[in-house]
Specification:
Length: 276
Amino acid sequence: MASSPPELREHKSIAGFPKHGAPDPSKYYVDIQKLSVFYGEKQALFGVSLGVARNEVLALIGPSGCGKSTLVKAVNRISELTPNVRIDGDIRINGETIFGEKADIITLRQRVGMVFQRPNPFPKSIYENVVYGLRLHGVRDRKTLDDVVEWALRHAALWDEVKDRLKTSALELSGGQQQRLCIARAIAVQPDVLLMDEPCSALDPIATAKIEDLILELKKDYTILIVTHNMQQAARVSDYTALMWLGKLIEHAPTEEIFTNPKEKITEDYITGRNG
């Protein structure tokens, strides 16, 4: 894989959130503090507090409807696109709130990339999918775009498979290739954090294995939060695991500890299949 990303430009900060700024070692890089989320009268999250260190993979597990996706979508404020949503608490990235008056949502979503449950490539060429975010942010130089396309596709373990057909439609790719293309599109704008909401649920075992290998490679450069129903996947790719239940955080600990010596009975029952 390419060793370093092409330099694109001087990035704006999000209320003091500089690109790849040195994190305070005493703090989480992504720090979720007493987060509650309401959809109208329904409360989806209840005072959740947890954090993720730089270059760490956190797996969020739990039954359907427990708040995992709601939590992840709050980290880049996509949840606010839902009507009647209300958020209490705070989320800090590298020590700075994402909810401050000076916070720029567009820049936040550049710094915090998102990969969804089902591959969602645009009905454009492979090349134009990767450079979409760059064009949105005003990058026009062809050499820069070409360099970023190769760099991002290499980092997404897709370059060798598509380098000779960059102008063909992304919709002609297989499901697994489409998901890796979506990852390439997310990292092309050089985020600091990657959010992955069930990124393998629509994929076959071979494609899933490729995405899991990719996650382990990407964590060298990114802080990653992944939602998964797959206990084996959480055990394979994550450094820490958090169990969500009915909108509450039940347990958050190193993955090995969660799977071998959980502190809470509800955690033990869930991972052994006795509950959930």
